[in-house]
Design brief:
This protein is an alpha/beta fold. The protein has helices at about 45-50, 75-80, 95-110, 125-135, 150-165, 180-195, 210, 230-235, 240-245, and strands at about 5-15, 20-30, 35, 60-65, 65-70, 80-85, 170-175, 200-205, 215-220, 225-230. This is ABC transporter ATP-binding protein.
Length: about 250
């Protein structure tokens, strides 16, 4: 039997007397895309922090491909094939698009990571960066300063940087946050291709129309608990979900 790409076993987090997460269990199959929804304070970002190693759970386990990574650091999980984007932009605005992508590739390949070292156009990191920028549709912006990109293109660059680290499991934390309506369609296609490439994707997103059109299943968080996880259609029809998150009327 194939191990899930990502598995949470009764994950909990308690800080002082406050219980932030309570017994969250789920399995995400290889190549599956799961959306995570819930009102503010439901525990979505905390869940991502625990999966990525930013926070350590006080109970339960996190497994990647069947390996227990609960005690591993962020960089160790990255080496194990886990990648994450964040709600706020994480590009280097003073560097070019190509330099940003190349730094990410260098971090995976090892060796010097200075963007001011003049690389050969045919070196391995430059090649990886070029392929990743092509994949997200930013190849024509290689020499553009990242700081002048639209917010949507910055999100694409973040995904290109993520791809350069060759992750097998990808966490996207509100990729549409702050993105203008004109950039949403292009970013959706990038995420769709990311999923179609066979990577496993877990995505937190408040843009419900976008999320429901992309994911295989939806996980609903409420007060630190996993309220439901099912197909978008089944979740939207669940009375408990409607009451807790979407309101009495959908």
């Amino acid at each position: 039997m194939t191990e899930p790409a990502l598995q949470l076993d009764a994950v909990g987090l308690q800080i002082g007397g406050a219980r932030i997460l309570r017994d969250v269990s789920m399995q995400v199959a290889t190549g599956e895309m799961v959306g995570v929804i819930g009102p503010n304070g439901a525990g979505k970002t905390t869940l991502f922090n625990i999966i990525s190693g930013v926070s350590v759970p006080t109970s339960g386990r996190v497994l990647l491909g069947g390996d227990d990574v609960t005690g591993r650091k962020v960089h160790q999980r990255a080496r194990a094939g886990l990648g994450r984007t964040f709600q706020t932009s994480s590009v280097f605005p003073g560097l070019t698009v190509g330099e940003n992508a190349r730094l990410a590739a260098q971090s995976k390949l090892g060796g010097a990571t200075s963007p001011w070292r003049f690389p050969r156009a045919d070196d391995e990191a430059s090649g990886v960066a070029a392929r990743c920028l092509e994949e997200v549709g930013l190849a024509h912006h290689t020499g553009t300063a990242a700081g002048v990109l639209s917010h949507g293109d910055k999100r694409k660059l973040e995904i290109a940087m993520l791809l350069a680290t060759e992750p097998e499991v990808v966490l996207l934390d509100e990729p549409m946050a702050g993105v203008g309506s004109g950039d949403v369609g292009g970013l959706v296609e990038v995420i769709r291709r990311l999923h179609a490439s066979g990577r496993t994707v877990l995505m937190v997103e408040h843009h419900m129309e976008v999320l429901l059109g992309l994911v295989d299943r939806v996980a609903v968080m409420h007060h630190g608990e996993l309220l439901a996880i099912d197909t978008p259609k089944a979740v939207m029809a669940d009375p408990a979900v409607q009451k807790a998150y979407l309101g009495e009327t959908v």
